Amino acid sequence: MNIQLEKMKQNQECERRKRIAEEKHKEWVQKKREEERRERKRKVSKEMAEKATRELEKMQLQEKADIKYKEWLKKKRAEEAEKKKKEKEKEKEREAELQEKRTRSEKIFKEWLQNARNKPQPALNGYGFPHGKSTGLYVYYT
Hints:
By secondary structure, this protein is mainly α. It has a domain at 1-84. Helix content is 82%, strand content 0%. The relative contact order is 0.03. The mean pLDDT is 89. This is CCD34 protein. Residues 25-59, 78-102 are annotated as: Disordered. Pfam families: CCDC34 (PF13904). InterPro entries: CCDC34, CCDC34/181. Residues 4-136 form the Coiled-coil domain.
């Protein structure tokens, strides 16, 4: 009887230890899963933060690039406007010079025309001798 009682006690003790071990194992597994879940959550959170930081940096770079491009474009347009302005000024100068030249030419032509009308015409001499005298080579015909 004592032996059976002793065996029963041992079996109960063994079962109790098994249950305690199983419970501890379950707790450990649950803790481990919870820890892994928190770790995954932390990693995802960290990745999201890094991604947001990268996106922000990318946007800032894009904004800087846009600003620089706009400044460059503004400068280029100003240069083009200045160039066109200079070309127009040169064209005006050329036009003014041409007009001045035409005016001078017309004035000189009118003066010449006036002088040409007032000049006496030289008398035409016969045989093509200037002033009626022979100058130069004498040719005898025999």
